[in-house]
Amino acid sequence: MCFIMADCGDDDSQYRIKEGDCIVMKRGDIFKAAQIQPKKKVVFEKQWFFLDNAVGHLYGTVFETVSGGTLQPQKPKDTESSCDAKEAGTDNRNIVDDGKSQKLTRDHIEMFKKQGLKGQQIIQELIENSSTFRDKTEYAQDKYIKKKKKKYENTVTILKPSCRILAMMYHGREPGKICHLRYETLAQMLTLANVHAGSKVLVFETCAGLVLGAVMERMGGYGSVIQMYPGGGPVRAGVESFGFPAHFHDTLHEFPICHVNALLSGTLHTTGRDSSADEKQSSMVEEEKSQPDATQQGSPEEQSMETSAGDDTGQDQEKTQEEKRKEAKAQEKKVKLEEKRKKLAAAAALLEGRNADGLVIASRFHPWPVLMGLLKFLSPSRPFVVYSQYKEPLIECYTKLKEQGGTVNLRLTDTWLRHYQVLPNRTHPLLLMSGGGGYLLSGTSVVMDRSKPTCSQQAEEPAPKRLKLTDTEG
Amino acid sequence: MEKLFQYVYNLPQDQFNSARLHPPCAVCVAGTGSGSLSHAILRTIAPTGHLHTVEFHQQRAEKVAEEFKEHRVGHLVTVRNQDVCKDGFGVTGVADAVFLDIPSPWEAVGHAKAAMKKHGGRLCSFSPCIEQVQRTCEALTHQGFEAISTMEVLLRVHDVRTVSLPLPDFGPDASAQTEPDAREETPPTSTPNHPSITLKTTTPPREMPGHTGYLTFATKPRT
Known about the structure:
The complex is a heterodimer. Chain A is of the alpha/beta class. Chain A contains 16 helices and 15 strands. Chain A has helices spanning 2-14, 76-79, 106-115, 119-128, 138-152, 163-173, 183-192, 210-219, 237-242, 260-265, 279-282, 300-309, 316-352, 367-374, 392-404, 457-460; strands at 22-27, 30-35, 41-44, 47-50, 62-66, 70-73, 155-159, 200-205, 224-229, 252-256, 358-362, 383-388, 407-421, 428-429, 439-445. Chain A is flat. The two termini of chain A are 58 Å apart. Mean pLDDT of chain A is 82; it is low at 1-10, 274-311, 454-460 and 466-474. In chain B, strands 3-2-1-4-5-8-6-7 form an 8-stranded mixed β-sheet, sandwiched between helices. Chain B is elongated.
């Protein structure tokens, strides 16, 4: 029993919505991420409202949007369908679908909405004004009510973000941003790459940070995650939506792939001297010394700026203001540069050992060069997984990996996913299903045996048969 | 933890399941069976989570408890030898997630609810037969679970193959009067010199698993 008592106290607060929290709004199958900010209007499913009233309530609470854009927790009794229409038909032989069975018009419904009628009440009105409702079978009535609920109920559920919820959100709203990665494929990636607390995982993704966030969530703040990123800076808006506690970010590092070759060849300088990545910024700050905290005035750089400012008038006060502004700016830049340098050095230090425990790739880039470049950072006997929206690039990876050796257990897979409606006497798969969720190539790194010629190509793939038949047998 | 890697449970449903977990989740599983799912779960909830697993077969329960000890994860898991449908999980109000892989999951729904935190949690039930699924969904609705959703997940493996497709010979091209030598020696049977196109593709296996079981997920709201 003490288990429960221990949970009661502080656990409650972790389940309550707080200002500043990253949350996800849900209605049916539609999700949208937002942040609780005072007096900030959010739009969700064509409705505007403020999230202020949600603060203090528990996650998972269902709210109703009332006029004025405020949220009100939905009372449990409102959810009970009061449409216990006892009267129902047996089949539809006499029901004529002429589109005229509903007596209420669009205008009537708009009026109801303006009057502030709740969704449930509008549905009741629709039922009463439908000439065919009573003749429908019980099941048809159920279906009708469900359909109307979807249309007229204006409820919002506030959820705590999680990998599952965010993955469904992205896949539903902006699949292009996540390379059409379906939720269960992401789930597989986490398992195939053996992502777990305490490991060191390399991630290269262009999925808005969703994959990165999923990896971080699974690691629970233990271990380290290094995001290898293309271009100027890491993109990880999705990570913010997870609402991780601050200390999780201590485990997150980033490293630009444009420095990978330098790092591998040992020519990457992460000391103060090399500012190759930030040449534009470093032109202002010509600091040769690696002292990061030169805060005193009258430093050589400041003097040089003074002369170059070209302001030769004797107005001391103006000069001081101008000086101070420029100095502050230069200082800021110096501090930022130094921070960046430190971060780069930290990430490089983690990578240098080439002992990562897992590698996860999910991007719009062609996977082969990415894989080839990043596999080098993986310890032997460790898993890697590559996601691609398309199969062919992964076929290429598979083939080339077989040729070059260094990996085993290569598997190219995808998953088939179908949802069901489960209701008494009405159980069947849903009429629409996902067409695909992308492909995965997974494998394990091994110590490269350079003495042996790579004969592994024949190991799993049978030699192409002679030309009289097409290849039929695996 | 490295030893656990051998227990990579390749069925997509188990990957799907364990993907929702992370430290410091507390999880209940019934029935333990071979322990594959349990091992997979342990990998994801270590080092701060805990697994409560129930197995009604005494020998299996003992064996799996031994294995957990051997793999040095004994401190993360509690094995109970009892019937979950009658006696529940042996804990109340602690679980973030419950997995049911038993013949009559609908009989355990009430116990699952009791084992879960009052703040809520996720439940997952795995059943091969649709009738089991129907009964389970009914029980879940009855017990106040929400967001009940049933699905099937199948893993498809693609075998990478090099394939050579011969090109047909329609005879000498009437319009191409020049260069007769190239066409002269074309025997009716294929030779290595006969043109063909080689490509890398994948083929599906002849047979693949078509069904393992239905997965039903549900959310326990705050009680």
